[in-house]
Design a protein that fits this description.
Keywords: Membrane, Transmembrane, Transmembrane helix. Helices cover 69% and strands 0% of the residues. The protein has helices spanning 11-27, 34-54, 61-72, 78-99, 108-123, 132-151, 162-168, 176-187, 196-215, 218-239, 249-260, 265-282, 289-294, 298-301. The longest helix has 22 residues, at 78-99.
C-alpha cells in the first residue's frame, strides 16, 4: 500500500482556469491582451493534462497547487515560475517512479516540455511565437498514444522522438513542417486503420497549417488547427473516451474558424466559441466533485 498511487482530478482546476483565460482572450480579441490571455489559457490546459497523465498522485498536490497559483497570475514572469514548479514536480514524480522499480517507455517529447516552457516564458516578451515550441512538444508527444490506440500507429518513444524535437523548433516560423513531419513519422513502419475523429484531427492540422503558407495568420493556424484540435483530441480520449467518436466535428469546426477569419472575424470567433462549448459538453462528466476527488470521470463511477 505504501507504493499505491492515489490520484485526484488535478486536470479539472487547470482546465477551468484555461477556459477562463480563453474566455478573457475572446473578450479582448481587439485588444493587445488577447494573445497573452489565450496563451496562458493554453498553458493551463497543458499543465493540467501533463500533471494528470504523468504525476496525478495526491502526494504531489503541493506542487500542483503552487504551479496552478503561479500560472494564474497574469504577469511576467509568473508563467516562467509556474513552468519551473511543474518541472520540479515532474522530476519528483520521475524519481519516485524509478525508486519503485517501474519500467515504462519514455515520452521524451512530453517530459521535455515543462523545461522548454520555462525557457520560452523567460523569452516570451520578445515574441509570442517562442511559446509555440513547448506546446508543440507536448501536443505531438501526448497524442502519440491516442493515435496509436485509435489508428493503430506503431508507438515510438525515447530516441525515436528526437527528430520531432528538432522539427518542433521550426513551428515558430513554419508550423506546417512539424505537422507534416509528425504525420510522416506516425505513418512510418505502421499499418493505420480508419478512425474518423483521429483522421479528422490530423487532416485539419495539415489543412490549416498548409493554407497558412499562402493565407498567412500562421499563429492562428497553429492555435486553431493544431493546438486546440490536438488538445481536445487527447483530452476527450483520455478523460471521456465514451464520447471520443462524438468529437469528430471538433477539428472540422476549428479548421472552419481559421478559414473564416479571412471573411468575417465575428463569424470565425463564433465557430471557435461554439467548438469550445461543444468540447465542454463532451467532457462535462469531469467537472464534478467526485472527479476532483478521485481523478476519474463521473460517468465511470455511475
Amino acid at each position: 500500500m505504501e507504493k499505491a498511487i492515489e490520484p485526484w482530478g488535478v486536470n479539472v482546476p487547470y482546465l477551468a482556469l484555461g477556459l477562463v483565460y480563453w474566455a478573457l482572450g475572446g473578450a479582448t480579441i481587439s485588444l493587445g491582451l488577447h494573445p497573452y490571455f489565450m496563451m496562458v489559457g493554453s498553458y493551463a490546459v497543458f499543465f493540467g493534462m501533463i500533471s494528470r497523465l504523468f504525476f496525478p498522485a495526491r502526494k504531489y498536490i503541493l506542487g500542483h497547487v503552487i504551479t496552478l497559483a503561479l500560472l494564474s497570475v497574469p504577469l511576467y514572469p509568473f508563467q516562467a515560475l509556474a513552468s519551473a514548479s511543474l518541472g520540479v514536480t515532474e522530476l519528483w514524480g520521475f524519481k519516485d517512479t524509478k525508486s519503485y522499480g517501474a519500467k515504462f517507455p519514455v515520452n521524451v517529447l512530453v517530459l521535455s516540455s515543462p523545461f522548454a516552457s520555462f525557457v520560452a516564458w523567460l523569452l516570451f516578451p520578445a515574441n509570442y511565437e517562442v511559446l509555440l515550441f513547448p506546446l508543440t512538444l507536448y501536443l505531438l508527444g501526448v497524442n502519440v498514444g491516442v493515435f496509436s490506440a485509435t489508428m493503430g500507429f506503431k508507438p515510438k518513444f525515447g530516441a525515436k522522438q528526437v527528430p520531432l524535437i528538432l522539427l518542433s523548433v521550426l513551428v515558430v516560423k513554419y508550423p506546417v513542417l512539424p505537422v507534416l513531419g509528425y504525420v510522416a513519422w506516425l505513418l512510418y513502419d505502421s499499418k493505420p486503420r480508419v478512425n474518423a475523429t483521429a483522421m479528422a484531427t490530423l487532416s485539419a492540422s495539415i489543412a490549416t497549417t498548409s493554407a497558412s503558407l499562402l493565407l498567412g495568420q500562421e499563429l492562428h493556424a497553429f492555435a486553431l488547427g493544431v493546438m486546440m484540435t490536438y488538445f481536445f483530441n487527447c483530452i476527450t480520449y483520455s478523460t471521456s473516451r465514451y464520447n471520443y467518436q462524438k468529437a469528430f466535428p471538433i477539428p472540422l469546426l476549428l479548421a472552419t474558424s481559421y478559414f473564416t477569419r479571412f471573411l468575417n472575424l465575428e463569424l470565425s470567433s463564433a465557430f471557435t466559441a461554439f467548438t469550445v462549448l461543444y468540447f465542454v459538453y463532451l467532457v462535462k462528466d469531469n467537472f464534478t466533485w467526485r472527479t476532483i476527488k478521485l481523478g476519474i470521470s463521473a460517468k465511470y463511477l455511475s
